[in-house]
Structure formats: C-alpha cells, structure tokens
Amino acid sequence: TKGDDLLAGRLPAARISYDQPAAGQRVNGAIIALVRNSELDGLRKSMRMFEDRFNRRFKYPYVLLNDQNFTQEFRDGIAAITKNEVRYGILDSDLWGYSPSVTPEETTKKLEENKARYLYGGSLSYRFMCRFQSGLFFKHPLIRDLDWYWRLEPDVEYYCDLDYDPFVFMRDHGIKYGFTIAPREGRRTVETLWYHTREWIKNNTDLLPERSLVNWVMGTDGHYNLCHFWSNFEIVDLSLYRSAAYESYFQHLDDAQGFFYERWGDAPIHSIAATLLLEKGQIHWFEDIGYKHPGNMHCPRNPDMLSKCICDPAKSYTYRSACQTRFSKVNNMAKARMLEIIHN
Ligand code: GDP
Ligand code: MN
Questions:
Q1: 20-36 burial, b if ≥16 CB within 10 A, otherwise e?
Q2: What is the crossing angle of helices 124-135 and 104-114, to 10°?
Q3: pTM over cut 0.90
Q4: CATH number of the domain located at residue range(s) 27-343 in this protein
C-alpha cells in the first residue's frame, strides 16, 4: 500500500500521466548533446527542464557525445533524470580534430594572436567543437541513421509546456530548420567566412536552388550582416546537412582554414547554409518555445503561447533583436538576383 511504500522510504507513484503520442506520429529523431564529464550538473539541469516541458511525454532517445570516455558518475547522474533511452558515443580523431588544411604549429600561433580578441579566441578545443558541429556530427555512428535531431546543451532552460511534437510539426509542414533565437555574430570571429562563402557560391551555382532566403544573411551590398540562428537550440531535418550542396560547402570551408586560424562557429555556417539552400517556408521560428542559453533568452509575448510558460516576455531578447525582426520581414530571393549581387 501507499503507506508501506512511504515507510519503506519510497516515493508514491507519480500522479501525472500523459497520453502517449498516437502511433506513427513520430519521426526517426533524437535529442543530441555534445558534453564534457565536467558539465554533468549543467546537463542534468537542462534535461530536467527538457523532460518536464516535452520529452517525458514524447520519449525521444538522447544521444550524448564526448571526446573523452563518459564516467560512471556521469551516466548515473543522467540516468536519475530520465527514463528515456540514453545512448553514449565517443568521438574519434576523424570527427574531433584539425582540418587537413591546417597545421598544429600555425594554429598555436593564431590562437595566441586571437586569444584576447574574442571569446574562446585562444581555445583549441572550441575549434574542434565548432568544426565537429559544423560538418561532422551527423556522420557519427549513433547519428548516421537518424533523420532528425534537436540539439541540447548544458545550462539551458525551457520555459513552456509543449503539447505537440515539433519534429512532426516540421515534417508535416515541409520545414527543415527550426530555431528560437537569432543574434548577431562577432565580426572578428568570421573575418573571411563570407569571402570564402562567395567563392563557393560562384563555383557551385548548379548546387543552389532557384530561390532562397539568402537575403536574411546578405544585405543588398553583398556582405554578410552577421545574423545567425543560435545553434545551441536547433531542430533540423538532417537531409539538409547531408545534401551534396552542404557537403561541398563544408569541404570548401574546411579547406579555407578558418575553423582554426579564425574561429568560425557552427551557428553562422549552419545559418548561411540553411538560408542559401532553403526557402522561407522551410525555416521556422519556434516563437512558442521559451528558451534560454546563457547570454540570451526568448519568452513569447503572445498571450496564448505565454499561458503555458514560466518566463517574463519583458526580459525577452528576441523582440529587440534586429536579426529576428529581419527574419519576419525578409522574403525569398531569386538565384539570378543573388548571383548578380555576389558578382558585384
Ligand atoms: P558556447 O555555447 O559557445 O559558449 O560554448 P559551450 O561551452 O556551451 O560549448 C558548446 C557545446 O559543446 C556544449 O554542449 C558543450 O558541452 C560542448 N563542448 C564544448 N567544448 C567541448 C569539449 O572540449 N569536449 C566536449 N565533450 N564537449 C564540448
Ligand atoms: Mn553553450
């Protein structure tokens, strides 16, 4: 009986029971986090909120990746947070390492030069991380067979109950890329990224669609305006990153040395690629998903959305963000028009 359970030091069974999602209403997807053993507390916090807001009901598996072996303490700490399946993966040197175009010696010099110029300017592991997240994570054996992913990081917060499956919503509406927050990147971290992007565009016009949302990232002056989707949250149809165009674009960037001699992030790279390869209707702002990663927060101001949330929309970064406003305003651009601008 209940009383005996309590006496035996056990908790009474949970009173909340959620309906199972209807059979078939699921995608072949997972929640993916790259994480260090030292970030156990931060990931437990993220997963606690993610489970409570969404995944306790929808039951997607987690894939946790690390360049080091996960400790038993880490696995125990995660197991205490979720009943859902957790798969652990290790990154070999083919996924976690230098671009073939750079040398460790020259990288050391550049890190020294850049360490005071921007956040993580002197960090080698941050470079490995950005390169992995940009072009390689979806090739990992635990991810290779998945069609969809939702990125999770340590120390993020989820504020709003989700009573539908964003993966299924995206699939049913032909959406391939979902985001919550769109800030502006620090110019110094991507000094030559747009130059190399333009070179790639000029030489690969056959890989580009007839129209795209590229003018969200490119002004009529032909420059990169530094807008990007903050990739610590992203829900993506992985066929985007596995496309011939994306593969070619990443290879071009990997050859251009900027992951190491600059500090190109996966967020601007994913964002440039998504807007270059997709149309407006294929990219979705999840305004209803209140979310915070250290630095910026999104909380919906629409009363119907806000009623399911525990956050303050007055503190939301997103309604003050120029890139976010631009996303609402901007429309698709024809390929011919883009090439005209790029060639100027
Ligand atoms: P920021 O969000 O740009 O400030 O960078 P983070 O430190 O949050 O790193 C982004 C993601 O990569 C987080 O999920 C980190 O846990 C993970 N990460 C960053 N560096 C490493 C690393 O060296 N090893 C592992 N295993 N994960 C890392
Ligand atoms: Mn982070």
A1: eeeeeebbebbbbbbbb
A2: 110
A3: yes
A4: 3.90.550.10
Strands, E assignment, the chain: 29-34, 62-66, 86-90, 148-151, 157-158, 177-179, 211-212, 235-237, 283-285, 291-293, 296-298, 333-334
Please give the distance of CA 215 from its chain centroid, rounded to a whole number. 21
Measured from the Cβ of residue 321, the count of other Cβ atoms closer than 10 Å reads 18
Enclosing H/E stretch for 114: helix 104-114
Confirm if 36 and 66 have CB atoms less than 8 A apart. Answer: yes
Question: What is the rounded distance in angstroms from the CA atom of residue 67 to the CA atom of residue 90?
Answer: 6
Residues marked as catalytic: 234
Mutate which of 31, 34, 92 for ligand 1? The one with the most ligand atoms within 8 Å of its CB, which is: 34
Sheet holding 62-66, edge to edge: 86-90, 62-66, 29-34, 148-151, 235-237, 177-179, 283-285
Q: Residue 34 C-alpha to ligand 1 middle, in angstroms?
A: 7
Residue type, 274: A
pLDDT digits (tens, 9 = 90+) for 322-335: 999 999 999 999 99
Structural domain boundaries of the chain? 27-343
From 215, 219, 223, 216, select the one nearest 198 (Cα to Cα). 223
Distance in angstroms (rounded) separating the CA atoms of residues 238 and 143: 10
What average pLDDT does the structure give for the chain?
94
* Ligand whose nearest atom lies closest to the CA of 266: 1
> The complex's ipTM?
0.99
CA distance 79 to 75: 6
Closest atom, ligand 1, to C-alpha of 36? 26
For residue 216, give the DSSP letter.
G
Q: For 83-193, where are the E strands, in sequence order?
A: 86-90, 148-151, 157-158, 177-179
Dihedral sign (CA 19, 24, 27, 32): positive
Question: DSSP 3-state assignment of 46?
Answer: helix
